[in-house]
Amino acid sequence: MATPLLKRKRAETTAIPLPGRTDNRHLQTILSLQPTTIAALLSSAADKHPDIATSVAGLLSYAVGKYPDVATTISLAEGYTVAVEHAKTKTDALPTSAKVIDFDHYSKTAWRAINTQYKSMKGSYQYNASFGVQNDLEGCIKDIGRKCPAAASYGTKKSALETLRKIGKTVCMSGGDVIGSEVQKGFHMDTCLEDTMYRIVQKMTQRERDMVMKGDFGAKMEELVELSKDYYVFDRLDEVVALLEGTEGKLRVGKDFEDNDEDDSEDDSDE
Question: End-to-end alpha-carbon separation of the chain, Å?
Fold first, then answer.
């Protein structure tokens, strides 16, 4: 008597979280495609659109790393791995103008350094630590400036300006303890924040300046200008706003702004 054939169990797969809305009208069509077809489509899209190349590399690398069964399932591995490697290659080859650097972590670092990192210390110890905090903030600010050359993408410049604004507001609003108060005093004379912002705006086209001012960024900058006057910091911030608005002729324009930028060729390598 012949041995009955055993039905092979269907391999279990882990659902991969898809970004965006779950009721996407294209979702069912995409899921019905063969993995190799998906890979070919993604590779083609990555060739034509740098932002898709970046997204594909991030999402698929996450999926393969997070869910081992995805990597070990041959059909998926053959299709998606090709797309991942292709997308990574395209992303690495992107010109500076196509990359977007997110600087937001600098603002979080600044907030923690001023408000929580040394909170348990006594006043005299906080005073001593404040000099290090001041230096760290200046380092963050200048690092943002170095990574934002003229060839940087609009997204990079926008993130740089938004992050610097957040750092400025943190300095203004954190004068309630020793470290915050001492950092504020440091920025009474130190203009590195507004110098850096001004140089970034100078590198923006008129269209980029108009775009960044279309949202609520303009109002938030005006708020920071008023706060800076209240706390006697960032003395030249009004010139940054004037340059963004195209009214810099009414102010003492920033021709004498300090320029601590390093060679742009070094900036490109940082990205």
Answer: 70
Q: What is the pLDDT of residue 3?
A: 52
Tell me the per-residue pLDDT of 125-182, one tens digit each, with 9 for 90 and over: 999 999 999 999 999 999 999 999 999 999 999 999 999 999 999 999 987 889 999 9
Pairwise CA distance, residues 87 & 67, whole Å: 19
Distance CA 162, CA 269 (A): 23
18: number of CA atoms within 13 Å, CB side? 11
Concatenated DSSP letters of 81-145: HHHHHHHHHHHHT--GGG-----HHHHHHHHHHHHTTTTTS-HHHHHHHHHHHHHHHHHHHHHHH
> If we measure between CA atoms, which residue out of 257, 261, 252, 103 comes closest to residue 195?
257
Buried b (16+ CB within 10 A) or exposed e, 92-127: eebebebbbbebeebbeebbebbbeebeeeeeeebe
Tell me how far apart the alpha carbons of residues 155 and 237 are, in angstroms, rounded to a whole number. Answer: 22
Whether the model pTM is above 0.85 = no
Distances in Å between the alpha carbon of 203 and those of 15, 161, 190? 45, 12, 22
Residue segments in the chain with a per-residue pLDDT below the cut of 50: 5, 7-8, 10-23, 62, 64, 67-68, 70-80, 84, 91-94, 250-255, 257, 260, 262-271
